[in-house]
Design a protein that fits this description.
Largest sheet: 7 strands, antiparallel
Shape: elongated
Helix content: under 10%
Number of strands: 7
Oligomer: single chain
Radius of gyration: 20 Å
Order of helices and strands: HEEEEEEE
Length: 180
């Protein structure tokens, strides 16, 4: 039957505005600074990676998407990752703290699940949850104007071996993730 779904109810109750219910166009301008002393990008065993940046996002006024000028906003992001070697390159402790805050303006609800990164590393936008931020949460399910999260993990290389001049290892990584 043609009955309103949950999303239709959110629009009806005013939780999702009429000017944001159909999505929109939001180009952005991003600038910041990065500090990187990691020994390698993939599975580092020592070093620090930190970045801080601002993202300005503009909403456009178009007939297709409605009036979105109110959705101009500025967000602040900060990420700090530290990799501490414990035993050679076999055991390492890694942690990350990160935050994203809307410091000015208003963001439409459909943009509040994106976690901005200074360098785009994946084809799809990042979001809280899934394997890249808070493991155990379904990806892109958190909608918020601001959030923070942390990851702690011990990285163990249990067995190293070579196949056709390529290096491989079997690892074990117990972890703890938290966010708010």
């Amino acid at each position: 039957p043609d009955i309103p779904g949950l999303y239709d109810k959110f629009v009806q109750w005013g939780m999702v505005g009429a000017n944001e219910k159909n999505g929109g166009m939001h180009p952005y301008l991003r600038g910041g600074i990065t500090y990187d002393t990691r020994d390698r990008q993939t599975n580092p065993t020592h070093g620090i990676y930190a970045d801080a940046f601002l993202t300005y996002s503009a909403g456009f006024n178009t007939q297709k998407f409605g009036d979105q000028r109110e959705f101009n906003n500025l967000r602040f992001n900060f990420t700090f990752r530290h990799y501490v070697p414990i035993y050679q390159d076999y055991v390492a402790f890694a942690y990350r703290i990160a935050t994203q805050l809307t410091v000015a303006g208003k963001s439409p609800f459909y943009m509040n699940n994106y976690w901005n990164t200074l360098y785009i590393q994946r084809v799809l936008y990042e979001g809280l949850g899934g394997c890249n931020t808070i493991r155990g949460l379904l990806r892109n399910r958190v909608l918020s104007n601001g959030f923070a999260f942390a990851n702690l993990e011990f990285r163990f290389k249990v067995c190293k071996f070579h196949v056709k001049k390529e290096n491989f290892y079997i690892g074990l990584t117990p972890f703890l993730d938290a966010g708010m």
